[in-house]
Amino acid sequence: MSATPTTSIALPPLANDSFLRACLRLPTEHTPVWLMRQAGRYLPEYRATRDKAGSFMGLATNKEAACEVTLQPLDRYALDAAILFSDILTVPDAMGLGLSFAAGEGPKFASPVRDEAAVAKLAVPDMGKLQYVFDAVSTIRKALSDEQGVGRVPLIGFSGSPWTLACYMVEGGGSDDYRLVKTLMYQRPDLMHRILAVNADSVALYLNTQIEAGAQAVMVFDSWGGVLADGAFQAFSLAYTQRVLSQLKREHNGLRIPHIVFTKGGGLWLSEIADSGADVVGLDWTVNLGRARAQVGDRVTLQGNLDPNVLFANPEQIREQVIRTLDSYGKPSAGSGHVFNLGHGISQFTPPAHVSVLVDTVHEHSRAQRA
């Protein structure tokens, strides 16, 4: 079920299409780079925009503000892709679970899903409740395009995975031990499968609507897949990620839409994830990139996987680690692909100047690899 490189479907008009080309395992002049959470709290201009918006959700639900913070890192760094500024919990919020963000705390749901009655109420939400997300996608695409309709870089849309959303929905927020969600999973697998089925169909519709609004690639963040035992991961996470992927548009208006899956802690199941139908598999920093490439062959593009904490080292050490990561993957060959990224989201404490070192080193060294 692995994806195959596609040359017959056109790519969108872009000044820089290296990210899309790498996702589809087509030749690139350099290894493209973008960063998870690249629009975020490490940038002073982001903090200023958020303060003006009044809250995180005030920022995320305002299409102009969401566009502004999406573009901020592109104005600082030579990044090869933009990613929609939003939150992975918009879908369960649209289901009526009452999402809130208290100052200094993580997300909370007023109505967690923990019993038969709560599960029975779940349904794929009306996408009209998420119109603010689609409006942001359209606004960003317009802002990225010149008068001739040529975009600076591609725009990535995203969602949390069915399992990751379920973790928040059952726990009522973040968790250190996943006790409540795992208790439900083991005691009432029937209820957990019902939650995950609704989530998968919701995520698929949500991502397809983002594509229709202008997203040129989409990513599924399986942030908590790695907390599952072997066997449980396949049954409760991967199977429902595949249910999402099987419903996603592979092309829109004649243009190919790459699909990315990232499971934090998923290195144990790399080969199975590579067979999920995704075009790109993201890796965290615990995985050796060269061995991962040897394991999956040229079935998928690999994305990753620098430890985000490398960015707290000095510039020369950052350069060394970036080069080490690129050399671990090696020179791309025909039908292979690598997208440079961190192994998880960038820390809010990261010095902005250090990100310049990372991005510039990726471009310089990957060009030298190809020379």
Summarize the structure.
With 371 residues, the chain is an alpha/beta fold.
Summarize the structure in words.
Helix 13 runs parallel beside helix 14. This protein has a single domain, classed as TIM Barrel, CATH 3.20.20. With 371 residues, it is of the alpha/beta class. The strands form 3 sheets. A 7-stranded parallel beta sheet has the order 1-4-5-8-9-10-11. The N terminus is likely disordered.
Supply the key terms.
single chain, 371 residues, alpha/beta, TIM Barrel, 15 helices
Topology:
Blueprint: H1 18-23, H2 44-53, H3 56-60, H4 63-76, E1 82-83, H5 90-97, E2 99-101, E3 107-109, H6 116-121, H7 131-144, E4 155-160, H8 162-171, H9 179-187, H10 189-213, E5 217-222, H11 232-247, E6 251-252, E7 255-256, E8 259-263, H12 270-274, E9 280-282, H13 289-296, E10 301-303, H14 315-329, E11 338-339, H15 352-370
Parallel strand pairs: 1-4, 4-5, 5-8, 8-9, 9-10, 10-11
Antiparallel strand pairs: 2-3, 6-7
